[in-house]
Design a protein that fits this description.
The complex is a heterodimer of chains A (about 575) and B (about 170). Chain A is of the alpha/beta class. Chain A is built from 23 helices and 20 strands. Classes of the chains: A alpha/beta (about 575), B alpha+beta (about 170).
């Protein structure tokens, strides 16, 4: 037992949990915590809007595989975190959000919480549906236990954000505290080991399969299961398609990799998954953007579904063989049983078919080449930046072009808001990723509309010396919406023209960053190389034709079969 | 046993007995677009736990999802589905009914006796009846009271236990 203030107990527990950096903005109700943080040795990155604190913590977590921490004051500070927390929740990212809260007690009133005090917001009520769990601290003595539980919940099972709401009086109050060694929550016992009988059933099905397909979701990346995934795929000679969140689960230059399925998936992936007789789905929730209409999705295939969240099994797609487990452990168990019962497969007819499709598809991608259009540009980008560079994206056309044309070779090097689809995510997430991995080149593939939503973080990037490069595919349009208006609303454009303001080169310069506008592929390559060499915050503005569509595309409410070319 | 028909199901959940848990449970039901017909909550032993009895309508698939989503909540320690044929379920109602004259009063007393209900309060022109039973019994009794003029009804919602030695193991 040792006597300390609530704020001291919080910071001490953060240190014990290995926290090295916090993204945040200070304000009245969190000042005592910042006062302790000042000399704690934990780095604080002052962002310019709380939403970006949450996105940066999220990017940090996704790049590193460790929890990211963000902090804000009560009321508006806390509510500004909300979009970032919801983004992390949808993509199962371990983010710890710490918010100040108004006093519970004060000298002249018994309670302030609940009395609509200045900068009071019910952040527990607001974030309950978008957090894995949340806590409001009620005493100093419980601080170490609660904070430790928060990290445990955020990082185990299916990861997700956890919010800690910290009333100001508890930050300053002093009490005897004890730091628990382990966590015990009776209502929370994630299952991580696969059931041997289910594994056996899955192996039976896979060994009988003529046309096995593996669908890898974000869960494969979250559990660092890429080596295990490759072993199973190579043993079965089964093609691997991924969801958008699973991009990077298999190197996209691997002979068995066919890219992403879904609305903007590759033709090869969408066609192969519908031909499967056995589908091994790992760490995916079968989101609607991935599956197309459910009544046409793998209806005749036997489906094996591995997921650590049992509520995901049977939620969207009926499953034949459920396996509730950690992806890494389940795939390892699958491989062991497979290898003990059969020989590694050779080049089956199915594999030859897959290879053929893959080649056809690559050819199609090549033939789309034109000057300074996103497909070619993104393939050039891939060629010049190191393999382990981290790419984040904004949301919209830029994101789907990146999904289709920017090949990812390593897990945790492609970071994007897949579930919530948060415009403005990519830039602050890139700042978070660069903070986590200062040795890597980090680039945000952006659209002009999305970048505008969080562009003020140029200040953070420059002042905190967290250099990232932003490539703006600038069509001066809310491009994905314009594409839908073009394709599904008889070209009735409304509210999509961004009129070419601001000048992004001047904007970058105003913040003390490098700004460069490029007019050709050659200039683009030069600008990226320059950004890599200088390692300073760089904005590369690439004007692209405004009427460019992201193709192929499965129209909303259609089957993966029905792709527009 | 898979059926696509909408039916009433009873779910029992052992939850942490602390502030905010009812909100988390009811909010999850709202967010996932599940409908709660009734919910009753009370502390059990040990005292830091409570039992929720939730009745819901839905087909098999929906109920299965509800149970999984409930079990996923950190504050829910255990969830169990109670099958109607193996379950004792009870509900309590308090019914305030007009009884302006002796004729009405004696008729009501007759019904009260038949239904093994009891009269817990009497004033000059109304009385309060307490009745316990399964929900159908309560519905039937309320129907009978309607002609007299029902002023107010308070129902607890269903609470239930499975029959026999079987019980929900907490840990």
């Amino acid at each position: 037992m040792v006597e300390m203030s609530g704020a001291e107990a919080l910071v001490e527990t953060l240190k014990r949990e290995g926290v090295r950096v916090i993204f945040g903005i200070i304000g009245g109700a969190i000042m005592p915590v910042y006062d302790v943080l000042r000399d704690s040795g934990i780095r604080h990155v002052l962002v310019r809007h709380e939403q970006c604190a949450a996105h940066a913590a999220d990017g940090y977590a996704r790049a590193l595989g460790r929890p990211g921490v963000c902090m804000a004051t009560s009321g508006p500070g806390a509510t500004n975190l909300v979009t970032g927390i919801a983004t992390a929740y949808m993509d199962s990212s371990p983010v710890i959000a710490i918010t100040g809260q108004v006093n519970r007690r004060s000298s002249n009133t018994a309670y302030m919480i609940g009395r609509d005090a200045f900068q009071e917001a019910d952040i527990i009520g607001i974030t309950t549906p978008i957090t894995k769990y949340n806590y409001q601290l009620t005493s100093v003595s419980e601080v170490p236990r609660v904070v430790k539980e928060a990290f445990y919940i955020a990082t185990t099972g299916r990861p997700g954000p956890v919010l800690l709401d910290f009333p100001k009086d508890i930050q300053t109050e002093r009490a005897e505290v004890e730091f628990p060694g382990k966590v015990e929550i009776r209502g929370y016992k994630p299952v991580t080991n696969p059931h041997p009988l289910q594994v056996k059933k899955a192996v039976d099905a896979l060994l009988e399969a003529e046309r096995p397909v593996i669908l890898a979701g974000g869960g494969v990346i979250l559990s660092n299961a890429t080596p295990e995934l490759l072993k199973v795929a190579e043993f079965l000679m089964a093609p691997v398609v991924t969801t958008f969140m699973g991009k990077g689960a298999i190197p996209e230059n691997h002979p068995l990799s066919l890219g992403c399925i879904g609305m903007h998936g590759s033709r090869a992936a969408n066609s192969v998954i519908l031909d499967a007789d056995v589908l091994l789905a790992v760490g995916t929730r079968f989101g609607d953007r991935s599956t197309g209409t459910l009544d046409t999705f793998c209806r005749d295939a036997k489906i094996i579904h591995i997921d650590i969240d049992s509520a995901e099994i049977g939620k969207n797609v009926d499953v034949d063989i459920p396996i509730v487990a950690d992806a890494k452990k389940a795939l390892r168990a699958l491989y062991e049983v497979l290898a003990s019962r059969a020989e590694k497969r050779g080049e089956t007819a199915w594999f030859r078919r897959v290879k053929e499709l893959k080649e056809q598809y690559e050819e199609l991608l090549e033939s789309r080449d034109e000057k300074l259009k996103p497909p070619r540009l993104l393939r050039e980008l891939r060629k010049i930046i190191p393999v382990d560079s981290i790419v984040t994206t904004e949301v919209g056309q830029n994101q789907m072009w990146a999904s289709l044309y920017f090949k990812t070779y390593k897990p945790r090097t492609f970071i994007s808001s897949g579930g919530l689809g948060t415009m403005g995510f990519g830039f602050p997430a890139a700042i978070g990723a660069k903070t986590a991995r200062p040795d890597r080149f980090v680039v945000d593939i952006a659209g002009d509309g999305s970048f505008r939503m969080t562009e003020q973080e140029l200040a953070t990037s420059v002042i905190e010396d967290i250099p990232v490069t932003v490539v703006i595919l600038n069509n001066s349009t809310l491009g994905m919406v314009a594409q839908w208006q073009r394709l599904f609303f008889d070209e009735r454009y409304v509210a999509v023209d961004l009129k070419g303001i601001p000048d992004f080169v001047k904007l970058a310069e105003a913040y003390g960053a490098q700004g460069v506008r490029v007019g050709s592929l050659k200039e683009f390559v030069k600008a990226v190389k320059e950004a890599m060499r200088l390692d300073v915050t760089t904005v590369i503005d690439v004007p692209i034709p405004p009427e460019e569509n992201v193709l192929p595309m499965v129209p909303p409410g259609k089957s993966l079969k029905e792709m527009i070319e | 046993m898979t059926t696509n028909e909408e039916q009433t199901h009873i779910i029992a959940a052992i939850v942490e007995h602390k502030p905010g848990v009812l909100y988390r449970v009811s909010n999850m039901f709202r967010r996932r677009n599940f409908n709660i017909e009734s919910i009753s909550v009370g502390p059990i032993e040990p005292r830091d736990l409570a039992r929720m009895t939730i009745t819901v309508r839905g087909d098999e698939k929906v109920v299965e999802q509800m149970i999984k989503q409930l079990a996923k909540l950190i504050d829910v320690v255990k969830v169990s589905r109670l099958h109607p044929e193996n379950t004792v379920s009870r509900e309590l109602a308090l019914i305030k009914v007009y009884s302006p004259d002796t004729r009405a009063r004696s008729d009501i007393i007759n019904y009260v006796n038949i239904f093994r209900a009891s009269i817990v309060d009497v004033s000059t022109d109304s009385m309060i009846i307490e009745i316990t039973g399964d929900s159908d019994k309560l519905d039937a009794f309320i129907e009978l009271m309607k002609p007299f003029g029902v002023k107010e009804i308070a129902r607890t919602g269903i609470t239930a236990l499975s029959r026999g030695a079987k019980s929900i193991k907490i840990l």
